[in-house]
Design brief:
Blueprint lengths: L1 H22 L15 H4 L15 E4 L2 E5 L15 E5 L2 E4 L5 H14 L8 H6 L15 H6 L16 H22 L22 H6 L31 H11 L26 H9 L5 E2 L2 E2 L36 E2 L2 E2 L27 E7 L20 E3 L17 E3 L5 E3 L8 E3 L76 E5 L16 E4 L7 E2 L3 E3 L14
């Protein structure tokens, strides 16, 4: 009996040791390669990292492979949705579209920080205002919506519309700063900036994630009162034990500073507490998340194909309780947006409050219907997975931080704002005051690289010199750059007022596709069921807006693909 117990104990110990050895060692506070303590150099950054938390309002989309494009019969022979195999990395995505109330918070912040009555900022606030006139119709009565849809509480939870692709990206940048500012406040590093009477949050004086990570002393012109104690700095030598003289105590108190003063260290990327940048999802990410093929998975195979974000070939529910109800908000037929009175098929004549319909298998709402959505990609008719079949995205334009002659990053202020006039005449600031200045990378930055050669890659292999018959010529040697698509060109003439003259292109053009057209995914309240297929693709110039296009944000997943504690079988 005793021998049996000893054998069982030995067997258990062997199993535990083998599991630990197979799993590998977790990172500790000491370098296994040098014997030095990491804390002696990084101050303890990353010691308490427990994994990436899910950002507020988002869900994790575990990456994988899928067939991007049409997988059902294409009755319209829409050749721009040819199926291609694609791998998508794990990422986070908003469970619903950005609503009117959420966007109004952005507007109120912009109005407070960049007052429109200040001549230095007068074009900033107006550049992010939604176009409420998108509801107008020359043969329709919808003027009330132009006055109420954005700001009336009845539409608080409705998706914001009238937003251009450019404005959606500005919201994503702002959201990154606001979320990280809240994180630093909760961690006791940053004081609540809007609650301090001695501080004025205006212009360049506001929190910016890039500036904080590059040089925390550049925020608020080096005013240290915006910070609290900070993280404990473990690079400092251990306190000497024993009695101290009065002089040593005074010196120690002077080093420690006044009560509540910043005495530790700032947060670093290595701490892992700051959220990644919010952005628009790429087209491949959006389509992958909308199809939610995980509910059709059986082991390592897919059973059946999906035409919508839910299972089934039809738009109506077959559940006993909801039988006959529409599964999304869309245009049912000519002159029919909601069905008969007293028996509304989809519950709405225009948009409807987000989360009104059942979420898909990933927990995402309204990926089919309600409003179509902007995605990050520049539109091209063909998805070239021969060039890249991993996290496909067209629109890369690489840049770097601008460093001045003193070796410091350049922060935009009211004297260095550069405004840009969009093709529709709207004026937009290229960089907001308080943010870092970025400049395009140069040829020397990409010298002897085999993965990219230049900064601007939007038209790579479809519009650049390498995709023309003059592929052998250096692009800088050409007097005019080649044009793959014969799209309209807005005259770039400045009038006496200093603004661009309004005018249309008078030449005959054959397409609207350009480097400024962005992809729109999903159907909307204004679309027939044909457009509800997540594989469908449309496009619109990035500076235009409509009453049926909204957006939602995404951000990157770091580390393992999933939160599930599992390992590869091999």
């Amino acid at each position: 009996m005793t021998k049996n117990r000893i054998f069982k104990g030995f067997l258990l110990a062997t199993i535990v040791i083998s599991i630990v050895s197979c799993g590998g060692k977790r990172s500790s506070g000491t370098s296994t390669l040098t014997g030095w303590s990491f804390n002696d150099f990084d101050g303890g950054a990353g010691n308490n990292y427990k994994g990436q938390p899910t950002p507020p309002g988002m869900v994790l989309i575990e990456g994988g492979t899928f067939t991007m494009g049409h997988v059902q019969d294409d009755v319209m022979a829409d050749w721009n949705t040819t199926p291609v195999k694609m791998q998508v990395r794990s990422f986070y995505m908003d469970e619903a579209e950005v609503t009117n109330r959420e966007y109004r918070l952005f507007l109120e912040w912009m109005e407070k920080v960049y007052p429109p009555d200040n001549d230095n900022y007068r074009n900033i606030y107006s550049s992010v205002l939604p176009d409420t006139l998108v509801w107008r119709n020359t043969l329709g009565d919808a003027e009330l919506l132009t006055e109420t849809y954005l700001r009336h509480p009845a539409y608080n939870d409705y998706p914001v519309v009238g937003i251009s692709w450019v404005q959606a990206n500005e919201y994503c940048k702002w959201r990154t700063n606001m979320v990280n500012e809240k994180i630093l406040m909760d961690k006791g590093i940053l004081n609540p900036l809007f609650e301090t009477d001695s501080l004025t949050v205006e212009g360049k004086n506001h929190f910016d994630t890039d500036v904080y990570l590059a040089d925390p002393t550049r925020l608020f012109d080096g005013d240290s009162t915006i910070y609290k104690k900070g993280f404990p700095d473990l690079t400092k030598k251990k306190k000497r034990r024993g009695r101290r003289t009065r002089g040593e105590k005074r010196t120690r108190r002077s080093r420690r500073g006044s009560k509540g003063a910043f005495t530790g260290r700032h947060a670093k990327v290595a701490d892992g507490i700051l959220t990644q940048k919010f952005r628009l999802p790429t087209e491949s990410e959006w389509e992958y998340a909308a199809k939610a093929l995980i509910e059709n998975r059986e082991y390592n195979n897919l059973r059946g194909r999906k035409k919508f974000s839910w299972n089934g070939r039809y738009t109506r529910s077959n559940q006993k309780r909801f039988r006959g109800d529409e599964m999304a908000n869309f245009k049912l037929g000519k002159g029919n947006y909601s069905g008969l009175a007293g028996w509304s098929d989809d519950g709405a004549d225009i948009t409807i409050a987000v989360r009104s319909y059942k979420a898909n298998a990933y927990g995402l709402y309204d990926m089919t219907g309600n409003v179509a959505e902007w995605v990050a990609d520049v539109y091209r008719p063909i998805i070239d997975n021969d060039a890249n079949d991993f996290n496909y995205y067209r629109g890369n334009s690489y840049s770097k931080k601008h460093i001045d002659e003193n070796g410091k990053v350049v922060v935009i202020d009211e004297n260095s704002i550069i405004y840009d006039t969009l093709d529709n005449g709207l004026i937009k600031a290229k960089n907001l005051p308080g943010s870092l200045k970025y400049i395009p990378i140069t040829k020397s930055d990409a010298f002897m690289r085999d993965n990219y050669e230049k900064s601007y890659n939007v038209n790579s292999q479809d519009g650049d010199i390498s995709s023309t018959r003059k592929y052998y010529i250096d692009e800088e040697e050409l007097e005019s750059k080649p044009r793959m698509y014969n799209h309209p060109v807005i005259p770039n003439e400045i009038g006496e007022s200093g603004y661009r003259k309004q005018g249309y292109d008078k030449k005959l053009r054959t397409t609207l596709i350009s480097d400024k057209t962005r992809v729109i995914k999903g159907g909307s309240w204004n679309d027939r069921a044909y457009w509800l297929d997540p594989a469908q693709r449309r496009y619109l110039p990035e500076y235009m807006a409509t009453n049926y296009v909204g957006f939602r944000c995404a951000t990157d997943r770091l580390g393992p693909m999933s939160d599930k504690k599992r390992k590869a079988h091999n």
